[in-house]
Amino acid sequence: MIFSTPIFIFVFLPCILAVYYVSPRKFKNTSLFLASLVFYAWGEPVYVSIMLFSTVFDFVNGLFIEKFKLQNKITKSKIILIISIVGNLSILFFFKYSDFVINNINQLFSLDIKNLDLKLPIGISFYTFQTMSYTIDVYRGKVKAQKNIIDFGTFVSLFPQLVAGPIVRYKTIAEQLKSRVHSIDKFSEGVRRFIIGLGKKVLLANNIGMIWEQISSSNINNLPLSSAWLGAICFSLQIYFDFSGYSDMAIGLGKMLGFDFLENFNLPYISKSITEFWRRWHISLGTWFKEYVYIPLGGSRKGTKKLIRNMFIVWALTGFWHGANWNFVFWGIYFGIILIMEKLFLLELLQKLPNSIKHLYTLFLVIISWVIFSIEDTAMLGKYLKAMFGLNSAPIMNNETIYLFCTNIFLIIACIIAVTNLPTYVNNKLQKFRYINLLYTCKNICYLCIFVVSISFLIGASYNPFLYFRF
């Protein structure tokens, strides 16, 4: 089940909210835990057992880690931590990467080992990282072990951020699991945030994504340079609105239930370097890898060679985390190389350039990265990149390019405006409007219109993917 479906919006969500708010305070986490299991089991009932195992596994690990640390038995505590990390990564590896390994072994040694053809459990990459961060933080002494398995199960299975994040670390919501604020204002804020995310997803991501689908499914060998760039730009817009829209909906749902999740996006396409871009894009993932991989490896504290090694490892893992295919590894290494260059010398050079040049530099590299990310077939990827640089003997432009651009010009302009800070700037200016009550009413009417139009699109839509759903 995904958020941008009528069954979630009109059936599941109202029922869950009704049960949640009717439940006494001490049973709210229980009702939320059970609701999250129902949400998860909606499409994959068998895989609930994996989530329940992970919950019990790391709940017990956390208790033992803390117990041994209090007894000053650090070695035993470290052994339990290693068991937790290895156990979690083994589950993730088995379901997500086993066929990838089998396929590569078959190619290398000309074998014919059959794939396991396992269906990827929804959200396993996200909740695996969450439970690992919990046991690591208990070992580090940053959080106390959770003594209530229902509260811990609520943290692991929390349905608003279960499918595609943001990655919620235990230490950010530990207190909220015990007590959190429920108010009409907070609920209303959550509804508004959910509607913004729904509009991003349904009205912008889905529609701009159809242009990419049409271009990427055409004959790549004869793809004009302008079409290749139009498609790449459209996919760059699609993945932003798709993923940030989902994060907005998750944050909004969290507020409806009294939780405050951290932001996951901060206008990444206004960045003036790739370093800045990754401070603004998928913030929760970048923070996780920095805190649990990069810094433990030594970060930048042990010289240039170790810095290069550490960044290379982090970004290869970041790419591999996104999917069991070589294009994701290439995508991670691509960013790793650029970020290493920026860290060593390129940022210093960029500081001397005008902001417009820095912005174009960033967008150019980011757009290319999304092509690498999107096309899993390496041969097809090579052909598409050739088309982007006019190396495939195709014309620069053809009638189809002109038609696609002209018929979607207003959608493209709307998407480009929406990725800038212009909407925020206008909103801040409107806050100074003299007739604030009238402004508040107009804004609520706009939210209602976005909701109604989004639902109208959903009812008749045949194209409604979630790009991060598979991760």
UniProtKB/TrEMBL annotation:
One of its GO terms (molecular function) is acyltransferase activity. Belongs to the membrane-bound acyltransferase family. Keywords: Acyltransferase, Cell membrane, Membrane, Transferase, Transmembrane, Transmembrane helix. The chain crosses the membrane at residues 7-23, 77-98, 307-324, 330-350, 362-382, 402-424, 445-463. It is found in: Cell membrane. It is a multi-pass membrane protein. Pfam families: MBOAT (PF03062). PANTHER family: ACYLTRANSFERASE, PROTEIN-CYSTEINE N-PALMITOYLTRANSFERASE RASP. One of its GO terms (biological process) is alginic acid biosynthetic process. This is Alginate O-acetylation protein. GO terms for cellular component: plasma membrane. InterPro entries: Ac/AlaTfrase_AlgI/DltB, AlgI, MB_O-acyltransferase, MBOAT_fam.
